[in-house]
Design brief:
4% strand, mainly alpha, 49% helix, 8 helices
Length: 183
């Protein structure tokens, strides 16, 4: 009886914090961390930043960030410097880093729905279901939109982001540059 009351109380707390009218498409934590790392590097352009500094500024686990940094490095988005004065920085100009390309690297191994994974698909409707086609088209539209966004679009002129992520006493990327999001 005590467990039932406890579970009911937890369930009522969860429904209060969630908005039942909203549904969310969720990115993996790794994709989210990749975006944070790249924005931190872009804001601190020309400065080698430490993973521990990014973890502190972005409220993230250093261990998780290191895993993401390895994949970002392997994909050519960042370069890493070992040693005492080591860290990471962008491997190419922020104007040449497509957010769509970054998201594809991190979301590629995660099937959107069961039927997208041929090895584990057990859906009996797969052979005749048309929903997969529509979902595929929607995902391509999603990535197409992100392909048009560069890392520079996210950070240039974003004074709030710059003040949160600057790590150098010389100041972060100038936020005087006007770059407003296209809606």
């Amino acid at each position: 009886m005590i467990w039932i009351k406890y579970i009911a109380r937890l369930a009522s707390k969860n429904t209060k914090t969630r908005n039942p009218d909203r549904t969310y498409m969720r990115l993996t934590i790794r994709t989210n961390l990749a975006a944070r790392i790249l924005m931190a590097c872009a804001v601190n352009e020309g400065v080698t930043v430490r993973t521990s500094e990014i973890a502190e500024k972005c409220n993230a686990s250093t261990h998780h960030l290191l895993q993401v940094v390895n994949l970002l490095h392997g994909s050519g988005f960042v370069e890493t410097i070992r040693g005492r004065s080591g860290g990471l920085r962008l491997a190419r100009p922020m104007e040449q880093i497509s957010i769509g390309a970054v998201f594809r690297v991190f979301e590629a191994g995660v099937p959107f729905a069961e039927c997208f994974d041929q090895e584990t698909n057990s859906c009996p409707l797969s052979a005749t279901c048309r929903l997969r086609t529509y979902i595929s088209r929607a995902l391509e539209a999603f990535y197409h939109e992100l392909d048009m966004v560069t890392l520079a679009d996210l950070v240039k002129g974003n004074c709030g982001l710059a003040s949160l992520l600057e790590m150098s006493p010389r100041g972060a990327l100038s936020c005087n540059e006007s770059s407003k999001p296209v809606v």
